[in-house]
Amino acid sequence: MASPVISCRGVAKRFDGRTVLDGVNLDVHAGETMVIMGGSGSGKSTLLRLIIGSFLPDEGEVLLLGQNLSRLSPDGRDSLRRRFGILFQSGALFNSMTLFENVALPIQEHTDLDANIIDIQVRIKLELVGLLEHADKYPSQISGGMKKRAGLARALALDPEILFYDEPSAGLDPVTSAQIDRLILDLTKKLGVTSVVVTHEMDSAFAIADRMAMLDKGRMLRVDERAFFDRLRLATDTDALAMNSDERLIRQFLRGDAEGPITDRRDQSLLERQLFGGGTVSTEPSLVPTRVPRKN
Ligand SMILES: Nc1ncnc2c1ncn2[C@@H]1O[C@H](COP(=O)(O)OP(=O)(O)OP(=O)(O)O)[C@@H](O)[C@H]1O
Ligand SMILES: [Mg+2]
């Protein structure tokens, strides 16, 4: 198989001494849609930021399109930056610019193309996301779903090989969110781009993923084909008895069940806090005695 377009090997990231990602391995192959899932605070956005080089790992290595971001010169980093697009959680459009100007900006900044060529490029991108007729509107004049699509047009401006999406359907109604999913699928197939999508919306995840990755508290529980996760999601309670603890945890997450290993863990930590009072109590089972026996 061709070498992966993204490769994370043993990646760890700490903030203020707190480990947010630990020993994370993830390969993404050309042309696939990889969905990264996990609860709030599990480290999804952090992993995305490490992959795009917003910050460097404390341990391990991240290769993007075969290159190690931390070893590139600023020029090398700039030219690598041009090869991927990002759709941020908010869409992040410039409010003082029309949609046309928003999409044109990265092309003007990164290329020497003539204005009339840029004009054509921008119109193609706006047409791809169904916003050509709104080219002259400002972000304040369009809906949330349209802003997301405009953000996508801008992410596509430089014909990226990889597209990163952080929670593309957050804050959208179900129909608009399904439209965004459809658009992600269409674009991936039409343009042959590789997509990495962070989401905790399961309907979206299963609609668009070729493969899926599940993070839990900074640990990568599993990276596998969509079919693997589908089986876990559909497994009965009896099937679940034969699963290992990671699989049971993933199953609860995928099904959104109110009871299971995730909630047991939370209840456990709550119980410990009630028993032993405030402070941060590890939710991991510990063999270390909480109180040191007093010597007489
Ligand atoms: N720049 C930062 N400085 C300090 N802590 C951070 C920073 N970025 C993230 N964190 C912490 O790292 C942990 C993981 O955050 P991250 O944003 O990656 O989670 P997430 O899985 O994307 O969550 P959500 O689903 O809520 O977006 C959180 O506890 C967060 O507070
Ligand atoms: Mg996030």
Task: Map the helices and strands.
Blueprint: E1 6-15, E2 18-28, E3 33-38, H1 44-51, E4 59-64, E5 67-68, H2 74-81, E6 84-87, H3 99-110, H4 115-128, H5 144-155, E7 162-166, H6 174-191, E8 194-198, H7 202-208, E9 211-216, E10 219-225, H8 226-234, H9 237-241, H10 245-255, H11 261-276
Parallel strand pairs: 3-8, 3-9, 6-7, 7-8
Antiparallel strand pairs: 1-2, 1-4, 4-5, 9-10
Helix pairs in contact: 3-4, 3-5, 8-10
The chain binds adenosine-5'-triphosphate (ATP) and magnesium ion (MG).
Magnesium ion binds next to α1.
What can be said about the biggest beta sheet? 6 strands, mixed
Relative strand content: 15-25%
- The tally of domains stands at 3
* CA-based gyration radius: 22 Å
Q: Taking strands numbered 1, 2, ... along the chain, how are they ordered across the largest sheet?
A: 6-7-8-3-9-10
Bound molecules: adenosine-5'-triphosphate, magnesium ion
* Secondary-structure element pattern, one letter each: EEEHEEHEHHHEHEHEEHHHH
Reading off the top of the CATH hierarchy, the class of the largest domain is best stated as: Alpha Beta
CATH topology of the largest domain: Rossmann fold
Question: How would you characterize this protein structure?
Answer:
The protein has 296 residues and is of the alpha/beta class. It has helices at 44-51, 74-81, 99-110, 115-128, 144-155, 174-191, 202-208, 226-234, 237-241, 245-255, 261-276; strands spanning 6-15, 18-28, 33-38, 59-64, 67-68, 84-87, 162-166, 194-198, 211-216, 219-225. The protein has a six-stranded mixed beta sheet with strand order 6-7-8-3-9-10, sandwiched between helices. A four-stranded antiparallel beta sheet has the order 2-1-4-5, covered by helices on one side. Strand 4 and strand 5 form a beta hairpin. Helix 3 crosses helix 4 (115-128), helix 3 packs parallel to helix 5 (144-155) and helix 8 packs across helix 10. The longest helix is centred in the middle third of the chain and has 18 residues, at 174-191. The model is unreliable at 280-296 (pLDDT under 50). Magnesium ion is lined by residues 44-45.
